[in-house]
Write a structure and sequence with these properties.
- It is a single chain.
- By secondary structure, the chain is α/β, with parallel strands linked by helices.
- It has 2 domains: about 5-145, Rossmann fold (3-Layer(aba) Sandwich); about 150-265 and about 285-355, no CATH class.
- About 45% of the residues lie in helices and about 15% in strands.
- It is built from 15 helices and 11 strands.
- It has helices at about 15-25, 40-50, 60-65, 80-90, 105-110, 125-140, 150-160, 185-190, 190-195, 205-215, 215-230, 265-275, 305-315, 320-335, 340-355, and strands spanning about 5-10, 30-35, 50-55, 75, 95, 115-120, 140-145, 165-175, 235-240, 245-250, 255-260.
- Strands 4-3-2-1-5-6-7 form a 7-stranded parallel β-sheet, with helices on both faces. Strands 9-8-10-11 form a 4-stranded mixed β-sheet, with helices on one face.
- Helix 2 (about 40-50) links the parallel strand 2 (about 30-35) and strand 3 (about 50-55).
Amino acid sequence: MQKTLTILGSTGSIGRQTLEVAEHLGHRILALSAGKNIELLEEQTRKYKPALVAVFDEKAAGAFESRISDTGVQTVQGMDGLIEAAKNSGADTIVTAIAGEAGLQPTLAALETGRRVAIANKEPLVCAGETVMETARRYGAEIIPVDSEHSAIFQCLHEKGINTSGVKKIILTASGGPFRGKTRDELSKVTPEMALRHPNWSMGQKVTIDSATLMNKGLEIIEAIHLFGVTPEQIEVVIHPESIIHSMVEFTDNTVIAQLSNPDMRLPIQYALTYPQRVPSLIKALDITELKQLTFDKPDYELFPCLRLAYEAAKQGGTACAILNKANEEAVNRFINNEIGFYGISDKIEEALKGK
């Protein structure tokens, strides 16, 4: 049966891959949204023919409306437009992939529809996890995580109807980013260009830098706390350079269940759209015989202090996680603009948390 989708953040990496998966599955696109990349958004609009398109940047929205005036597609703009697309498209599933704090209100609006929400943006759960989960409960919405790690945990827990009551701990795997094995002196000289070369994943700038500092894993710790109802003490981060095991769950009887696949975001995206069914995907099958080794190591919290700071914020609770997220966003932008060094990111975050 054909299903319908709304994709919030369709011009980003996750949004583009979601459209590819949707086309593979034969799903119909009812609404799209973008920040200001109207060239790509126009291509997507003409190809997928949504009824509604939201453009967050109001100046870009005017230009976009002129460009697609021959299509009859309804255009809305600003935050109100994002909320309109989230709430009123009538889609079976709303994929929220808007980076940054701008994703929170549309995510809450999507949950208020009581439909399935595939969450691919970290900020709503990091900054307002309790509110997000309570909104989902109140409106009967279904949250399916799209992050490869959280999708893996979700699959380990739900594939056979397992609930979280028997969970001992969650093991979040991390590739280690591009700087695994580097010294502090080497890391202090890292440039944005170096940090943007991830060995395993193709992602947007912000998340790629977060992967280099391990803040990406720190934010995932906070997400997992809310998604799966566990404590910070129940989450362990393990460096796994091959990125074949996407995360694991250890149960009270010391059984460990893992989810394995080639690193390709199209798989967790598809699972979020088709759950609980599994259907053929676009990704390359994993040939176990080609795996010569799977290695694991403990993270170095001194070399990568962002991970430590995320744990500390998670344990503090309250506004600490929102402060952590905001400070990290600002610091990453400054790093990309060559205003601060690699360790300037963690320094700025620590300063913000101490001033909380």
